[in-house]
Specification:
5-stranded mixed beta sheet, 19 helices, 3 domains
Length: 505
């Protein structure tokens, strides 16, 4: 079905090495609800819906709405209100409600639910709309209800989503067939100008993606079949602001449609397919699942605490010391910061984290002030296997050899995890041989070394042997992959604690 099995693999790493465009999302604890009048009964109901909308933005996934603690709080929503006001726009009256952040966070802590901080990744959404034999990529200002629906979803879920401009620049770079077939290099090239943290390619079709089974299932939905795939599980009362009443007057003809999407994140390629009759509902469902997927990297569990020691270099002045300390203190994933060592331009900090180390590191990647670097010895290793930019960053160099080890996760399927391998014609002879003979892939090495909970890089490759100690391991101990024959004699030196560099201002 797809000509490229490692779809969007390089996109994520290439963009991570660029200046990322994460956004500080404001008004997470505020929501607006359309009301008919300023009557007390309507205000009380609107406040409940607004609190539920805030729960969803802060909690990141729909399942939080079913938790008993939050359901009970919703019944007494007025207790959590800090202020409210009415707003008139386009002949519609809305109640804008702001809630007390500390009280809402306390509810999540009481329920042992994770919080999603205000620093969130910007998502670039490419939608290819196929109608019959015609395909087009939807622009942000397209004459369609879809861009407005995407923007509405972005506001309601607190996730910055942009669509391409499809201006002269895009028209020069974009070939619709490249996006339809998910060619990673072409998608990457067209996406670079937007500096997005996450790239999503979504296809919606009423023709070529449909099978006879898809048509039968979609048509069953129009006859009341309750086996709808991936439609919102909440009714109008439960979904509150999620109910798309505004688009009810603009329904498309009830013809079967299929939607699928691809996104590379968390070391794997994720994909999912839906079928139904309403294009907007399909897109919103896809965006909802993508939002929850992204949320998993950044969620902060208030009931979990971890100590994490880091080393920061390039701290050259008292001003830098103050700025760095304040920066770490202000991170939503950090509960407290303790300076444990200061020597020259190097500082050691002990961080008391709210949540996992993975969520801390994921949030840290959303800015360009504190960046994790690989020491020169390990940088030489990455260069030897293809990282020719000389930066020493652990990111892009080894991926040309690790494609064959990429995990592809198909969501919504009984057997959702598969391993796809590239066409050997796209590999060098050495890489093709490695594909047949390797027991441990480069992706395995680096996936196992990724900082995540207790299984971080330092524990796997370089054991903590002391403050300034290092541990050596030969590549022959890590892999017998024939693609590494020319570098097996080299050794990896990994510091006992992760090293970061402070970007001076």
């Amino acid at each position: 079905m797809f000509r490229s099995p490692f779809v969007l693999l390089m996109l994520f790493f290439s963009l991570c090495s660029a200046k990322l465009a994460a956004l500080e999302v404001n008004d997470l604890y505020q929501a607006s609800v359309i009301v008919e009048s300023q009557a007390r009964e309507q205000r009380e109901q609107a406040i409940k819906e607004a609190l539920q909308a805030v729960f969803l933005k802060v909690g990141g996934k729909k399942s939080v709405l079913t938790h008993d603690v939050l359901k009970k709080a919703k019944r007494r929503a007025s207790r959590y209100v800090s202020q409210y006001r009415y707003q008139q726009k386009d002949q519609l009256l809305s109640l804008v409600v702001s809630f007390n952040e500390a009280k809402v966070n306390q509810l999540f802590e009481q329920a042992s639910l994770a919080l999603w901080g205000s620093l969130r990744p910007q998502v670039l959404l490419w939608i290819i709309d196929e109608q019959g034999a015609s395909r087009r990529i939807l622009a942000s200002d397209a004459d369609s209800i879809i861009p407005a629906s995407v923007n509405d979803f972005s506001v309601k879920r607190g996730l910055p989503i942009i669509m391409p401009l499809m201006d002269l620049t895009d028209n020069e770079l974009v070939v619709v067939s490249d996006f339809w077939e998910y060619f990673p290099e072409q998608v990457q090239q067209a996406s670079l100008r937007y500096f997005a943290d996450t790239i999503v390619v979504m296809r919606v079709s009423d023709s070529s993606l449909l099978s006879e089974e898809s048509i039968a299932v979609a048509l069953n939905e129009t006859t009341g079949d309750e086996k709808n795939i991936k439609v919102d599980a909440f009714d109008d009362v439960a979904c509150g602001l999620l109910c798309d009443h505004e688009n009810e007057q603009q329904e498309e003809p009830e013809t079967p449609k299929v939607l699928d999407w691809r996104v590379y994140t968390q070391g794997a390629l994720y994909t999912q397919k839906y079928q139904g009759i309403n294009k907007v509902e399909l897109i919103n469902q896809g965006l909802s699942d993508i939002t929850e997927l992204i949320y998993q990297s950044y969620a902060l569990l208030a009931s979990t605490e971890n100590d994490f020691v880091i080393e920061v270099k390039n701290v050259t002045s008292l001003t830098s010391d103050t700025q760095l300390f304040n920066f770490l203190t202000d991170l939503s994933a950090v509960k407290s910061v303790t300076l444990t060592q200061a020597k020259g331009s190097v500082r050691h900090f002990k961080l008391d984290l709210i949540g996992s180390r993975a969520s801390f590191l994921a949030s840290l990647k959303l800015n360009n002030k504190l960046t994790q670097k690989i020491e020169p010895q390990l940088g030489a290793f990455t260069q030897a296997i293809g990282d020719n930019d000389g930066s020493g960053n652990l990111g892009t160099g080894f991926n040309s050899l690790s494609h064959h080890g990429m995990k592809v996760i198909v969501l919504g399927e009984p057997e959702f995890t598969t391993i796809e391998q590239p066409d050997k014609k796209t590999l060098t002879d050495t890489q093709a041989t490695a594909l047949d003979t390797s027991e441990v892939t480069l992706q395995d090495i680096f996936d196992n070394n990724a900082p995540s909970g207790e299984n971080n890089m330092n524990n796997v490759v370089g054991a903590d042997t002391g403050e300034d100690d290092f541990q050596l391991k030969s590549l022959s101990e890590l892999s017998n992959t024939e693609a590494l024959l020319d570098v097996k004699a080299k050794q990896i030196i990994v510091p006992s604690i992760p090293v970061f560099y402070w970007e001076q201002r």
